[in-house]
Design brief:
- The complex is a heterotrimer of chains A (176), B (370) and C (317).
- Chain A is of the alpha/beta class.
- Chain A is built from five helices and eight strands.
- Chain C has one domain (2-313): Thiamin diphosphate (ThDP)-binding fold, Pyr/PP domains (Rossmann fold, 3-Layer(aba) Sandwich), CATH 3.40.50.
- Chain C has 13 helices and eight strands.
- The two termini of chain C are 26 Å apart.
- Classes of the chains: A alpha/beta (176), B alpha/beta (370), C alpha/beta (317).
């Protein structure tokens, strides 16, 4: 079972990213669950969402305490939340950033400027760049889901083709 | 069709397939998604129901009562305080013998405000005459909702059915969902005592003790008959759609020395704990209680029983633990856990089994550290 | 809205037909829907009203009844004094229950009248939320509040509709606050039809029920229903008590159709020259030992109501 924890702020699309990722994994023929951890719904507050992907049906409903992958959609959260907490040895962290982490301490760290990609595609809703579709492209490059399933998942949930373009741009941009 | 959906969306999809004539509901976290999805279906013309956006849950159930008595299939959804606010009408619906189906998204009760999972809301309705089923997966939320209409509307039952799922823990998580073409699985709605102006009757007038007493007995008789009807409907569902359900979902229980009994998502999480324990050589099994009313007959003799209650009856104990004690005579190890959405993992559940003390009660994370 | 226009046209037509055909009590149908086996109190004006409501509504009607005197009036299981279906429902739930029933009938293509027949307690107090919700949603039904100004079937406790100064079992010294103005609350929902009526004027009530049921949407009729045991007057004076209420302009008969107010028959004269309020007050035991100050406040309230409704009818608001 591959376990992913997504850190974002309310309104940035972390919950939708989790749902999209689960849907893409599902379209890959895997079992997947997406569980946002809900508190009071407040725009701008730090939120976490969880995704589990497995070849077997998933029976776990509790939160993910030892993720294989941590995704950070807003690096300003790292000032207030220890995003690396519980990350498995040999785990991966992905940042929405033009820069890698300064100190990776042996953790595999990947990064793409998703905000820049969203702005380049003019993917902005209510003043916020859309991050949940480009991040799927990056995850496809990391081999967590396939790119065709990402495209299909995005098309199932969003009509706007720019979302697929943004995902492909992130796919191209991520260095592995 | 195969897709992924939340527990809430699964309920809405089942309601769409069942095509009620009237849906009356009031939004409340974490049930709101059901109401919103149904409003979308109705607005988009995907569901030809009348959706009554009532001003309270009390009115939601009252409107369902009026509509069901008027002769149409009826659905509502609620949670927590909403369920308690309609409590009077919950009793009324059963007493009036109306096959209303209600989704209840289990949530804790204030104060303080807490929108996470707990079963006290549903268990507080246990004496109302409603059938109650608790689901553990998104697929089951869909399947149980469809079956609920068929069970409720059976003339041997004619009692309302509450389909419970854990708030957020199931209502908001996405899992795979296979929707079905229901065909004639659900026959057209027929209520033998629907209002008929050609044959005017008084419904629920002043009633003396002798008649009233007989009406109560009729409810219990139907509740007893419901066991067989539930089994028939679940069997037919399995034949048609390939998914099998029963009064409990038993996991590796056959040769088990110790059985974990839990309700809802904790009952599924327990299966993970059982696998861990089996790896350690502990002969453990789990039993997820699905039907709470009518309460099933359970075969637990000769085993240690660990009951996880996501509820509490103050001054008495865990509702499930005490139900099992009174039904089986077994003194279980009663673990109170998960209230108000308290995090309980499969590792914790495995610990409950390892550290079990039959006949005692523990409040997880509180009294077990004393 | 073509539906509204059709409703208005049929309303005008109805009115013409009604005025020509039903201008005396002998024109009211002979069919009875409330039988003599009713268990109402002697001199009960609420059951009298119910009789005329059902004559106007006819057999394809359902009565939705919350806890109130009509829970008793209809008789005890397995008997019934009613020749239409009566759906009994919990105290606060009548309007909501009727909402569901009305939509169920619409779904089934049935044109059955859904009529709530509720007391004042179930309307102005515990049931007002459901009433407000049903009216805001535009529910197609007729809500009738028969108002005996207290909780009657539990032995006369005060309700929000109990008038200033009236003694009840829970206001033994007289009610210190005024009667809740239910009609202005209902009016705030802008229903297509609302009216007041009084048990002493059955023809007026009959016509109003007929008219209300010809209109689509939420309709409201508020009936003043004097109560001999509750108001403490001799049973044979029930009709007289209603007439006094109207003649003193303590109770004003009117209807408001699509927002337009019309003062009806006897109230026109009463508003110009009301009979002395003392005649009404002194004939009821519930107002015994009323202080002159309270009486003065009551008279002022009557005067204010007259002025407000006169201004509205004249279009001076």
């Amino acid at each position: 079972m591959y376990e992913i924890r997504i850190h974002s702020r309310g309104g940035q699309g972390g919950v939708t990213a989790a749902k999209l990722l689960a849907l893409a994994a599902f379209r890959d023929g895997k079992h997947a669950t997406a569980c946002p951890f809900y508190g009071a719904e407040r725009r701008g507050a730090p939120v976490v969402s969880f995704v589990r992907i497995d070849d077997q049906p998933i029976k776990v409903y509790s939160q993910i305490h030892e993720p294989d992958l941590v995704i950070v959609l807003d690096t300003s959260i790292m000032d207030v939340v220890d995003v690396l907490q519980g990350l498995k040895d040999g785990g991966t962290v992905f940042l929405n950033s033009a820069h890698a982490l300064e100190e990776c301490n042996g953790t595999c760290c990947r990064h793409v400027d998703l905000t820049g990609i969203a702005l380049a595609q003019d993917l902005v809703v209510a003043g916020s760049p859309i991050l949940n579709t480009p991040v799927l492209g990056a995850l496809a490059k990391m081999g967590i889901v396939t790119l065709p399933s990402v495209e299909q998942a995005i098309q199932e949930m969003f009509a706007d083709e720019r979302n697929v373009k943004a995902a492909k741009a992130a796919y191209e941009e991520l260095k592995v | 069709m195969l897709t992924i959906a939340t527990g809430n969306k699964a309920v809405a999809a089942a309601v769409k397939a069942a095509r009620p004539g009237v849906i009356a509901a009031y939004p409340i976290t974490p049930q709101t998604e059901i109401v919103e999805q149904i409003a979308d279906y109705v607005t988009d013309g995907d569901l030809e129901s009348r959706y009554i956006p009532v001003e309270s849950e009390h009115s939601a159930m009252a409107a369902c009562i009026g509509a069901s008595a008027g002769g149409v299939r009826t659905f509502t959804a609620t949670s927590s305080h909403g369920l308690l606010y309609m409590h009077e009408m919950v009793h009324w619906a059963a007493g009036a013998r109306l096959p209303i189906v209600m989704a209840n998204v289990n949530r804790a009760l204030g104060p303080g405000w807490n929108t996470w999972a707990e079963h006290t809301d549903a268990f507080s309705q246990r004496d109302t005459g409603w059938l109650q089923v608790f689901v553990g997966t998104v697929q089951e939320a869909y399947d149980a909702t469809l079956m609920a209409f068929k069970i409720a509307e059976n003339e041997r039952v004619l009692l309302p059915v509450m389909v419970n799922q854990d708030g957020f823990a199931l209502s908001h998580i996405m899992q795979s969902l296979e929707t079905v073409e229901i065909g004639d699985f659900l026959p057209p709605f027929h209520l033998p005592h629907a209002i008929d102006t050609e044959n005017p009757c008084g419904y629920g007038p002043m009633t003396g003790p002798a008649d009233y007493f007989r009406f109560r007995w009729d409810i219990e008789r139907s509740m007893r008959d419901a066991r067989g009807v539930i089994a028939d409907v679940e069997r037919e569902f399995a034949e048609r759609f390939g998914r099998t359900y029963g009064p409990t979902e038993d996991y590796r229980c056959e040769d088990a020395d110790v059985v974990v009994v839990a309700v809802g998502t904790l009952g599924k999480e327990a299966e993970m704990a059982i696998d861990r324990l089996r790896d350690e050589g502990v002969k453990a099994g789990s039993m997820r209680l699905r039907w709470f009313r009518p309460f099933p007959d359970l075969d637990l003799s000769g085993r240690d029983v660990v009951v996880i209650d996501r509820d509490y009856s103050f001054g008495f104990g865990g509702v499930v633990a005490h139900s099992i004690r009174s039904k089986t005579g077994i003194e279980p190890y009663s673990v109170i856990a998960g209230l108000g959405g308290q995090e309980v993992t499969y590792n914790d559940i495995a610990d409950f089994v390892r550290n079990r003390r039959p006949g005692e009660e523990t409040w997880f994370g509180v009294s077990d550290h004393v | 809205m073509s539906g509204n226009r059709i409703a208005k046209l049929s309303l005008q037509l109805m009115t013409i037909i009604e005025e020509r055909s039903v201008n005396n009590l002998s024109a009211i149908p002979k069919e009875e829907y409330l039988y003599k086996c009713t268990s109402a109190c002697a001199g009960c004006s609420s059951s009298l009203c119910l009789r005329y409501v059902l004559k106007a509504a006819g057999p394809d009607s359902v009565l939705v009844v919350p806890a109130c005197c009509t829970s008793v009036i209809q008789g005890m299981y397995p008997g019934t004094a009613m020749n239409v279906p009566v759906y009994n429902i919990a105290f606060a739930a009548a309007a909501a229950c009727a909402s569901g029933m009305s939509d169920a009938f619409a779904t089934l293509g049935r044109e059955t009248n859904v009529i709530v027949y509720a007391g004042d307690g179930g309307t102005v107090d515990i049931g007002i939320q459901a009433l407000s919700g049903a009216f805001e949603r535009g529910t197609n039904f007729l809500y009738i509040c028969y108002d005996n100004e207290a909780y009657g079937n539990t032995g006369m406790q005060r309700s929000g509709s109990t008038p200033l100064g009236a003694r009840t079992t829970t206001t033994p010294g007289g009610k210190p606050t005024a009667k809740k103005d239910l009609d202005r609350i209902v009016e705030a929902h802008n229903p297509p039809y609302m009216a007041t009526a009084c048990s002493a004027y059955p023809l007026d009530l009959y016509k109003k029920v007929k008219k209300a049921l010809s209109i689509e949407g939420p309709k409201f009729i508020h009936i003043l229903a004097p109560c001999p045991p509750g108001w403490r007057y001799p049973t044979e004076k029930t009709v007289e008590m209603g007439k006094l209420a109207v003649k003193t302009a303590q109770w004003i008969l009117y209807e408001r159709e699509f927002g337009k107010l019309t003062i009806n028959g006897p109230s026109k004269a009463a508003m110009k020259k009301p009979a002395p309020l003392e005649d009404y007050i002194k004939s009821q035991g519930r107002f015994k030992n009323l202080s002159p100050e309270i009486f003065d406040l009551m008279r002022q309230q009557v005067e204010q109501n007259i002025q407000r409704l006169s201004r509205e009818e004249a279009g001076v608001c």
